[in-house]
From TrEMBL:
Molecular-function GO terms, alphabetical: 2-oxoglutarate-dependent dioxygenase activity; iron ion binding
Residue intervals passing through the bilayer: none
Source species taxonomy: Bacteria, Pseudomonadati, Pseudomonadota, Gammaproteobacteria, Alteromonadales
Cofactor: Fe(2+)
Keywords from the UniProt entry: Dioxygenase, Oxidoreductase
Stored InterPro entries: Phytyl_CoA_dOase-like (IPR008775)
Native species: Shewanella maritima
Name of this protein: Phytanoyl-CoA dioxygenase
Pfam family membership, one: PhyH
Amino acid sequence: MDIQQLVAQFQRDGYLVLDNFFDKQLMQDCNEAILDHFGMSPEFLHNDEFLSQADTEVIPWFPEREGVALFSEVNRHALLSELTKAILGDDWYSQYSMVMFSKQGTKGQAWHQDCPPENPEQFNLNRLVYTMDISEHTGGLTQVMPGSHKAGLLPSNGQPMSEDDMVTLTPKAGTLVLLHGHCWHKVTPVTGKYRVSTNYRSAPQGTPEDITDICVYRNMRYRFSTSETIEVRG
């Protein structure tokens, strides 16, 4: 694996897909732990305003905060740490791991940026670990706009936005996807029984720990800590 080539590709595109990155048995064990935690019909945690305005029906779980060792084992993966350091610098830091569960028939996620893009030096890195295959059969496909991490603010609903260059990702169990927090991305509706991924968020040193508290959608900016829309976008 040519780390520097991968870093250059990430810096150009704002995302990176690495298949067969993690041990299949570890992924299976993690997936079983996720299903044991959620079951098939967990309740949404966000309020109705967020669910309707963001077209986002994802239920989070923070397993490392509960001491679930399996997920810490993933976080300590040597090559993952090496690649993260090469992208973010020597003083990068780990923020938290968050499992994202979507039920069958849910909307997925609308176009968004995981953190405000006004300062290009202030961003988080999404390190998405897939413990199951994501395909046309399951739905929940992540779609990204290559290079958009350098394009600034996601267009509002009132502004034109071409999807001609959009790339659809179909990761399998064991795939790692790295995604820049300013990169425009969305998730398609879930058609299979469920859809999960686990995000090991990290950031360059000097980035505020709450960098992902505000998420940018085409119709709003939303602050998760206070569960409120802080800007309505036209």
